[in-house]
């Protein structure tokens, strides 16, 4: 019975440390000169989906009657919805993720060769399969990284600046 308790405790501790290990791997990948080092740690389609959702929420003119009557704004919203996928596909790439995370790390640490681990101000679970990381102090141009457990690995699925 005691062995079972220790095994359960070990499993809980291992699960709690797991996303931090992936943050370390992300830090090493950002320091690498090979941009493909990020490939296994980043879910580009999920990041694109999250950015598209935020764009659509910000451009939802139907909830604002004074703006909904404006034909130009309606036309703009429709065009952005149709062409938004192509634009996001071109803008959000592995290189963009790498540059964004390196810039956020530099802002948070004020160092020339920044380390992701040094920039982390907060990192903890949102739920059993979601992990939130804040680079920099809250309210001072912080960048949030949301990691999601996918296929037995933690991947970056959202970057919020």
In brief:
The protein has 161 residues and is an alpha+beta fold.
- Quick one: overall form? globular
Structural class: alpha+beta
The number of E-state strands comes to 4
Largest sheet: 4 strands, antiparallel
The unreliable regions are none
> Beta-sheet strand percentage?
15-25%
Count of alpha and pi helical runs: 6
| Whole-number count of domains | 1
Spatial order of the strands forming the largest sheet: 1-2-3-4
Portion of residues in helices?
A: 55-70%
The average pLDDT is: 84
* Helix and strand pattern: HHHHHHEEEE
- What's the alpha carbon Rg, rounded to whole Å? 19 Å
Distance between the termini: 48 Å
Looking at this protein, list some descriptive labels.
alpha+beta, 56% helix, single chain, 6 helices, 161 residues, 4-stranded antiparallel sheet, 19% strand
Secondary structure layout plus pairing:
Elements: H1 2-31, H2 44-58, H3 65-68, H4 71-91, H5 94-109, H6 116-119, E1 120-127, E2 130-135, E3 143-150, E4 153-160
Antiparallel strand pairs: 1-2, 2-3, 3-4
Helix pairs in contact: 2-4
